[in-house]
Amino acid sequence: MKQVNVKTMRAVPQNGGDMYDCIVIGAGIAGAVAARKLAEEKGKRVLVMERRPHIGGNCYDEKDAHGILIHNYGPHIFHTGLEEVFAYLSRFTDWYLFGHEVVAKVGDQLIPVPFNLNTLHMVYGKEKADRLEQKLIETYGEGSRVPIMKLRENEDADIREIAQYVYENVFLYYTMKQWGQKPEEISPEVTGRVPVLISYDNRYFQDKYQGVPANGFTEMFEKMLSHPGITVECGTDCLSRMRFADNEIYFDGEKFDGDVIYTGALDELFACRYGRLPYRSLDFRFEHYDGASYQGHSVVNYTVSEDFTRITEFKFLTGQRDTDGTTIVKEYPFAYTGAEGEIPYYAILNEENQALYEKYRALTAGMEHFHLLGRLAEYRYYNIDAMVKRAMELADRL
């Protein structure tokens, strides 16, 4: 990966703690939104420190050697029904809007996921599918999203048959690959994201707005962070300039009394003194092919075969139709160990891990101006729009 060249961003003077009112650690969506609002609306002088050599966090994208815009950390599709979030981000980008559709490869078929009424009619004959459709609508209501584990609890034999098909062909193996756990060990917050949709809507999300920034996520971040009150330094671990001790925060060796927003992994801020918080990570393997298309879809999930979970073909996400060839990425999940080059993507949510996280959070309780924000800092899952909203709310409170 290369460092993004943002001309308006400046190098950070050393021993300049008195130059800043706020320090934001992390230049992903949480940190970037918070920094922009603090600088623009509160008149704060904000330093953003980012450990990676680029801004944008996991949303970072760039053109590969073949001129195709790729998402380096896996596909990111923005989707929201929150008008204020869409309006805020639209200040920094135009959009390529589309209804994101995903299919799963089951045997020789590519079936829509989430499993919906179209999928139902692909799997069963017309007479049986019509009867099952009516039962689903009568039981749960047209347009509803029913978590697979809830569907399995239904006493009706026909509904349980649908549930078992989805469980075996869409949910079970895919989930075990993704999380390295048995389904019954996985948090309901995760299993709730695998529903049966009682609708003919093939879109993966049902939000009003769906798409990606027209010229890429990175350009959106560049515009967001381009403000006279914001200084960005990439390639800097915050611990190389900051120290957290005795409920005090030190920056360049001097006490810092301004607000600090931390979006990184909380256990790593304290050298994992209680043990490492468990995460799932991903190994991305990019491949380029000649020809107009590799799979004809933006995302194909491999729910009953292969060691990888899905293949993304980027030109179907970004609207690139005039490129020669096509670039795909395969995703292989594995357990995060903290080794160099690994990235913690998904918190593994259970009572034991939450208790460990709370021990780390308690270490920050005495720091009045220290704020945790984001997937890693809060050890939970957020969609992009929810993260934007939380960042906006935090900036408004400060």
Question: How would you describe this structure to a colleague?
Answer:
The structure is a single chain. Strands 8-7-18-19-20-17-21 form a seven-stranded mixed beta sheet. Strands 12-2-1-16-22 form a five-stranded parallel beta sheet, with helices on one face. It has a three-stranded antiparallel beta sheet with strand order 5-11-6. The two termini are 34 Å apart. It is an alpha+beta fold and 398 residues long. It has helices at 29-42, 83-89, 117-123, 126-140, 148-152, 157-179, 188-191, 217-225, 266-269, 315-318, 351-362, 375-378, 384-397; strands spanning 22-25, 46-50, 61-63, 69-71, 78-80, 95-97, 102-106, 109-113, 145-147, 195-197, 209-213, 230-234, 242-245, 248-251, 254-255, 259-262, 279-289, 299-301, 310-313, 326-335, 346-347, 370-372. The longest helix has 23 residues, at 157-179. The protein has 13 helices and 22 strands. The protein folds into two domains: 17-99 and 212-272 and 348-397, Rossmann fold; 102-197, no CATH class. GO terms for molecular function: flavin adenine dinucleotide binding; UDP-galactopyranose mutase activity.
